[in-house]
């Protein structure tokens, strides 16, 4: 099953590399958001550095919505989803493949975003272990939930405006936990960071598990 | 020769049978309905007039008499939706699909009322309509989550797809309830705000306790009554649409 | 507004909303009932 998932993930990432939508559109969008928040919040008021954690994850969420939409729009265009279904790959491995592809794209996004913010907002990223742990777990959760809702959007016939409404309230606890975790890692807030990581871990496990199970009924009714 | 079929579904002729009933009521719902109505009257009397103001909360306890039951009813509604979603994915029967959807609609309604009551309580207690206190915040997030569920049901698609997608979302959403609770509680719990539930006195005096329980029972009864009627409405709507489709198909064939 | 006004708003708002929703269900239920055959009225 891992091999099947890797197959699907590889296909997605190769597609992505060739079309350059992620690199050409989503990443610039993220950097653009960094700029726009600076315009909105006024760099002179010392807000940006304090708000980095929150803004970081907000931009990740918005970019994630775009990435999920893109990942599943590709399936719909060519009827590839049907082909995958008929190919005999188990729904769970297709799901995990999609999740893996999303994770890869999100990780790239987060790294680029972190660099942009370090430069533009003058933030020091500290507490690397906690930051990596929080980011990793949060990304797992976002990818897991995103893949499930991406397929939902696909089955409903490209309801683009629906995906944010569905995905973002669900990811609210991820936003809260990741932001608080980052604040603690940066030294901006006191308290233990690992409970937040644990919460993110639970979210990730639950939604990856459910996503894998529920992918079959979602794919079956064409 | 073309057979003239009416475009609109016409009321069925009984042809000697007992007249078709013309509403979603039944004997059971009438009995339940009257009981609930009586309960609501009693609730108004007790809640507004008889029960005394609370030592800590003052008159605002009267708002809590409704706020707590509406949120309870909402949670019951979403548990029903979750179970119905699971059953639909297992059994694929229309009954579970419509039950889940009906219950979700009620849940959204009761969440909205919960938020509204919470805001009224807040205006008196805090002086503002909104504070980021845990319960209110969580309720709003969940409210938006299930609004998404309702939005999905509005998207035009075939019944089977809609049912499957709704069921999946129903399950994904209900699982998020405890996670969101925890996250928001940890987050906002650091700030010792006066929370809506935190200050409810466990040693409530007799009348207050009675009124609180009365309110809970009455609202749950109200929820059941609304759910039965809403489900029947959904069922009838599906049947009416089926008929409309059948009539259109028959027309098309007749013209051929 | 005094607290009494907000308490009144809470009660009235809640009851009116529920009543309106119930009325909507019942009215539409009546209309749908007229369109549907007796045979289709299996509730469960």
List the helices and strands and how they pair.
The complex is a heterotrimer of chains A (222), B (256) and C (44).
Chain A: H1 2-19, H2 21-41, H3 47-78, H4 80-86, H5 91-120, H6 128-155, H7 162-170, H8 172-185, H9 194-220
Chain B: H1 27-50, H2 61-91, H3 94-125, H4 134-154, H5 159-188, H6 206-255
Helix pairs in contact in B: 1-6, 2-3, 2-5, 2-6, 3-4, 3-5, 3-6, 4-5
Chain C: H1 3-35
Give me the number of helical elements of chain B. Answer: 6
CATH architectural type of chain B: Up-down Bundle
What share of the residues of chain B lie within helices?
over 70%
Integer average pLDDT of chain A: 85
Total domain count of chain A: 1
CATH class term of chain B: Mainly Alpha
Helices and strands of chain A: which structural class? mainly alpha
User: What proportion strand of chain A?
Assistant: under 5%
The best one-word shape of chain B is globular
Query: Cα distance, first to last residue of chain A?
Result: 24 Å
Approximate strand percentage of chain B: under 5%
Query: The CATH topology of chain B, please?
Result: Four Helix Bundle (Hemerythrin (Met), subunit A)
Low-pLDDT sequence parts of chain B: 4-19
**Overall number of strands of chain B:** 0
**Taking all residues together, what is the mean pLDDT of chain B?**
83
Shape of chain A: globular
Order of helices and strands of chain B: HHHHHH
Computed CA radius of gyration of chain A, to the nearest angstrom: 18 Å
- Tell me the greatest interface: B-C, 46 and 31 residues
Write down the Rg of chain B. Answer: 23 Å
Description of the molecule:
- The complex is a heterotrimer of chains A (222), B (256) and C (44).
- Chain A has 222 residues and is an all-alpha fold.
- Helix content of chain A is 84%, strand content 0%.
- The longest helix of chain A has 32 residues, at 47-78.
- The radius of gyration of chain A is 18 Å and the shape is globular.
- Residues 4-19 of chain B have low confidence and may be disordered.
- Chain C contains one helix and no strands.
- The longest helix of chain C has 33 residues, at 3-35.
- Chains B and C meet through helix 1, helix 2, helix 3 and helix 6 of B and helix 1 of C.
Summary, kept brief:
The complex is a heterotrimer of chains A (222), B (256) and C (44). Chain A is mostly helical and 222 residues long.
């Amino acid at each position: 099953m891992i091999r099947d998932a890797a197959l699907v993930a590889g296909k997605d990432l190769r597609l992505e590399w060739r079309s350059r939508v992620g690199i050409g559109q989503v990443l610039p969008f993220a950097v653009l958001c960094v700029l726009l928040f600076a315009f909105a919040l006024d760099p002179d008021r010392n807000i940006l550095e304090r708000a980095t954690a929150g803004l970081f994850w907000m931009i990740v969420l918005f970019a994630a919505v775009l990435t999920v939409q893109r990942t599943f729009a590709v399936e719909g265009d060519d009827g590839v989803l049907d082909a995958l279904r008929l190919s005999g790959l188990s729904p769970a491995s297709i799901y995990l493949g999609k999740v893996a592809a999303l994770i890869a794209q999100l990780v790239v996004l987060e790294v680029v975003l972190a660099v942009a913010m370090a430069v533009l907002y003058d933030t020091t990223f500290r507490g690397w272990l906690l930051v990596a742990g929080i980011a990793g777990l949060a990304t797992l959760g976002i990818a897991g939930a995103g893949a499930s809702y991406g397929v939902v959007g696909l089955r409903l016939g490209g309801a683009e405006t629906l995906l944010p409404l569905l995905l973002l309230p669900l990811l609210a606890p991820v936003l809260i936990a990741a932001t608080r975790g980052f604040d603690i890692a940066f030294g901006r807030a006191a308290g233990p960071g690992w409970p937040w990581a644990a919460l993110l871990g639970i979210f990730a496990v639950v939604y990856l598990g459910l996503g894998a199970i529920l992918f079959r009924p979602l794919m079956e009714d064409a | 020769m073309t057979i003239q079929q009416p475009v609109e579904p016409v009321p069925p002729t009984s042809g000697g049978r007992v007249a078709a009933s013309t509403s979603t009521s039944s004997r059971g719902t009438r009995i339940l309905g009257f009981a609930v109505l009586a309960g609501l009257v009693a609730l108004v009397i007790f809640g507004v007039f008889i029960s005394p103001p609370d030592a800590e909360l003052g008159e605002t306890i009267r708002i809590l008499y409704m706020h707590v039951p509406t949120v309870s009813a909402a949670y019951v509604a979403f548990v029903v939706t979750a179970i119905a979603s699971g059953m639909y994915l297992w059994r694929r029967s229309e009954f579970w699909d419509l039950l889940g959807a009906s219950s979700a609609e009620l849940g959204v309604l009761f969440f909205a009322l919960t938020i509204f009551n919470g805001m009224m309580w807040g205006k008196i207690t805090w002086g503002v309509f909104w504070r980021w206190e845990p319960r209110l915040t969580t309720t709003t997030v969940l409210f938006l989550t299930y609004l998404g569920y309702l939005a999905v049901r509005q998207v035009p698609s075939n019944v089977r797809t809609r049912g499957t997608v709704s069921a999946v979302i129903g399950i994904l959403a209900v699982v998020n309830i405890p996670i969101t609770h925890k996250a928001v509680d940890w987050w906002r719990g650091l700030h010792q705000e006066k929370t809506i539930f935190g200050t409810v006195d466990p040693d409530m005096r007799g009348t207050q306790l009675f009124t609180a329980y009365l309110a809970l029972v009455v609202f749950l009864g109200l929820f059941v009554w609304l759910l039965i009627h809403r489900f029947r409405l959904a069922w009838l709507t599906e049947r009416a649409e089926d008929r409309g489709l059948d009539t259109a198909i028959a027309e098309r064939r007749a013209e051929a | 507004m005094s607290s009494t006004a907000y308490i009144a708003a809470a009660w009235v708002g809640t009851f009116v909303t529920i009543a309106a929703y119930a009325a909507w269900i019942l009215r539409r239920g009546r209309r749908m009932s007229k369109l549907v055959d007796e045979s289709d009225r299996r509730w469960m």
